[in-house]
Amino acid sequence: xxxFDQVHYYYRKGQTILASVSFEIHxxxxxAIVGGNGSGKxxxxxxxxxxxxxxxxxxxxxxxxxxxxxxxxxxxEQVGLVFQSPDxxxxxxxxxxxxxxxxxxxxxxxxxxxARVDQALRAVRMEDYAEAMPHELSGGxxxxxxxxxxxxxxxxxxxxxxxxxxxDPQGRRQILSVMQELHSQGMTIIHITHHMNEVLExxxxxxxxxxxxxxxxxxxxxxRTKTLADNKLDQPFAAKLHLLLGLNTELNADWKETIRTxxxxx
Length: 266
Ligand SMILES: Nc1ncnc2c1ncn2[C@@H]1O[C@H](COP(=O)(O)OP(=O)(O)O)[C@@H](O)[C@H]1O
Ligand SMILES: [Mg+2]
Fold this sequence. Notes:
Elements: E1 2-9, E2 18-25, E3 30-34, H1 41-48, E4 56-61, E5 64-65, H2 72-78, E6 79-82, H3 86-89, H4 95-103, H5 110-123, H6 139-151, E7 157-161, H7 169-184, E8 188-192, H8 196-199, E9 204-209, E10 212-217, H9 219-224, H10 227-230, H11 235-247, H12 253-265
Parallel strand pairs: 3-8, 3-9, 6-7, 7-8
Antiparallel strand pairs: 1-2, 1-4, 4-5, 9-10
Helix pairs in contact: 4-5, 4-6, 5-6, 6-7
This protein binds adenosine-5'-diphosphate (ADP) and magnesium ion.
Organism: Paenibacillus contaminans
Domain ABC transporter: 2-235
Pfam family, one: ABC_tran
């Protein structure tokens, strides 16, 4: 569904941000992408919906290549991007306006528009905050409003670019639970994060390092590989997990819970 085929990217000639990146993300997957600061995660995210175009290689959403400018409006409808800062994303003066804003270009019939707004606000549990203004909202609520605005466009893929990193623990949990819920309804989720505990929520993890994907597998496989030691991620937590995984080969629900509790209390 989302295909990176030998993608090469640089901002300035002579520099390499991404070198020959290839992977495919399938419909309905929940994929985490991890990597150190400056490893190119946001660049990757912007390549996913055509905000950036590969210098070499190809990015496709279904059959649509981001290299073809005619495809970009459809691609942007299909791939929604949620960014890091809740404040920078809020462009209107209320939650409702925020959701309506993106829809205005679609020229939908009135009923369709209001049905979409309703459904999107409910999906992120913000239906009681439709009239709220940005300054009345917590970071987590603002991020949920941003997600609602994207959902109203009926995307096929949601990409979260460190969308939890500026939130308090409660806001972070809210966003993670929205991701889980949307995933259970069949949405394809790509969660870019440097919080290793959040990787546990995903079915599959890609590790971005030195401009390429150096790991592609399940979270438990990731914690078993030594590649982790080379990356500047949450070392103490990773080490803790490693220890736990040494006793258990698979992460079952109980272990996940134990790890989460440990994380939140440490
Ligand atoms: N607009 C830009 N112009 C030039 N260099 C950039 C730009 N955006 C990011 N970079 C550089 O590209 C590298 C990867 O950045 P980014 O994709 O934001 O990494 P991450 O999201 O993993 O922290 C960094 O070295 C960063 O300084
Ligand atoms: Mg980034």
